[in-house]
């Protein structure tokens, strides 16, 4: 590489590196540093912070609200992930066939992804889960399932599962498209050879399709983990009470401690140090899932 070319490359890369350092790394390090201090505002000078060591972290795991919120997000990650991936794989497999109206059905399944979560939450809470005229109540009443029709989906006892159902409904289409794109890259010769050998469709799926989706599945799980652990907007709009244990998640609790209400902190002052500690815990959780997924799936890649 010529000396002039090296200077030109450095001249183009340097602004990007500076922007990255200023707008990403600095806030990250400041957040981690702040998590070891007690402070009431994000903008307060560092010389006013009170050092508390790991007390912000230990107090969180003794905090019933945080523990409950973390359990909620784990349920979203695991149970929601299993449900979404199973349904998305089913639809993606069905959509590989040739039938009339295929494009229409694909668009209908993907449609919830282009609707804002707030609009979806209103639709589910007001028109599907409503105890008076909701769609679930009407369907179960029509089928004579009175006990199911009487379930108060918007109550605190059921609001978590109602929120999870609505969130999964809005996520299936996105992952269906990802799996469909990967399936279209698999040569038809594999399926034709398997069919000639007498293999059934069920066996073909588990012996050919699923193994060849390994890399795509790994990427999809990482996407899902990031979205689930940082779950926020659905929690804020699905319940009027920001501290409702059934819908509370760590990101929502973090926001409440950093910017929220006095009854969240118990003293009328904000707990920004504790909020930043939650942010660090969420980041470490995502890194743990990332490492776990790569250890389980390995680095092997298939060539289609």
Question: How would you summarize the topology of this molecule?
Answer:
Blueprint: H1 3-34, E1 37-38, E2 50-51, H2 55-61, H3 64-94, H4 102-110, H5 117-128, H6 135-142, H7 146-149, H8 159-183, H9 188-196, H10 201-212, H11 214-229, H12 233-238, H13 250-259, H14 262-265, H15 272-297
Antiparallel strand pairs: 1-2
Helix pairs in contact: 2-15, 3-8, 3-11, 5-8, 11-15, 13-15
User: Mind telling me the CATH class of one domain?
Assistant: Mainly Alpha
Question: Unreliable runs, pLDDT <50, ≥5 residues?
Answer: 262-268
- Helicity level: 55-70%
Strand count, sense and closure of the main sheet? 2 strands, antiparallel
Q: Which value, in Å, is the CA radius of gyration?
A: 24 Å
Key structural traits:
two-stranded antiparallel ribbon, mainly alpha, 2 strands, MetI-like fold, 69% helix, 304 residues
In short:
This protein has a domain at 65-253: MetI-like fold, CATH 1.10.3720.
What would you say this structure looks like, in words?
This protein is mainly alpha-helical. The protein has a domain at 65-253: MetI-like (MetI-like fold, Orthogonal Bundle), CATH 1.10.3720. It is built from 15 helices and two strands. The chain has helices at 3-34, 55-61, 64-94, 102-110, 117-128, 135-142, 146-149, 159-183, 188-196, 201-212, 214-229, 233-238, 250-259, 262-265, 272-297, and strands at 37-38, 50-51. The chain has a two-stranded antiparallel ribbon with strand order 1-2. Helix 3 (64-94) packs antiparallel against helix 11. The longest helix is centred in the first third of the chain and has 32 residues, at 3-34. It is globular.
């Amino acid at each position: 590489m010529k000396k002039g070319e090296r200077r030109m490359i450095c001249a183009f890369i340097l602004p990007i590196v500076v922007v990255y350092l200023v707008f990403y790394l600095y806030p990250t390090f400041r957040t981690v540093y702040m998590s070891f201090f007690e402070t009431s505002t994000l903008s307060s000078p560092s010389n006013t912070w009170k050092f508390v060591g790991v007390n912000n972290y230990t107090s969180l795991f003794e905090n019933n609200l945080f523990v409950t919120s973390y359990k909620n997000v784990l349920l979203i990650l695991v149970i929601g992930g299993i449900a979404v991936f199973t349904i998305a794989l089913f639809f993606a497999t069905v959509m590989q066939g040739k039938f009339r109206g295929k494009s229409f059905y694909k668009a209908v399944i993907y449609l919830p992804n282009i609707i804002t979560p707030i609009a979806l939450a209103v639709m589910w809470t007001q028109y599907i889960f409503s105890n008076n005229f909701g769609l679930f109540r009407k369907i179960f009443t029509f089928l004579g399932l009175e006990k199911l029709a009487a379930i108060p989906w918007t109550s605190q006892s059921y609001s978590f599962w109602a929120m999870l159902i609505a969130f999964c409904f809005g996520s299936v289409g996105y992952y269906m498209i990802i799996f469909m794109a990967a399936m279209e890259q698999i040569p038809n010769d594999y399926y034709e050879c398997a069919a000639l050998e007498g293999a059934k469709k069920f066996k073909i799926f588990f012996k050919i399709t699923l193994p060849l989706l390994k890399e795509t599945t790994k990427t999809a799980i990482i996407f899902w983990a990031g979205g689930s652990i940082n779950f926020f907007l659905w929690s804020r709009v699905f319940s009027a009470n920001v501290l409702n244990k059934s819908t509370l998640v760590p990101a929502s609790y973090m926001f409440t401690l950093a910017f929220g209400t006095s009854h969240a902190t118990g003293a009328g002052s904000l707990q920004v140090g504790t909020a930043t500690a939650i942010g660090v815990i969420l980041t470490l959780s995502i890194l743990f899932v990332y490492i776990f997924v790569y250890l389980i799936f390995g680095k092997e890649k298939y060539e289609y």
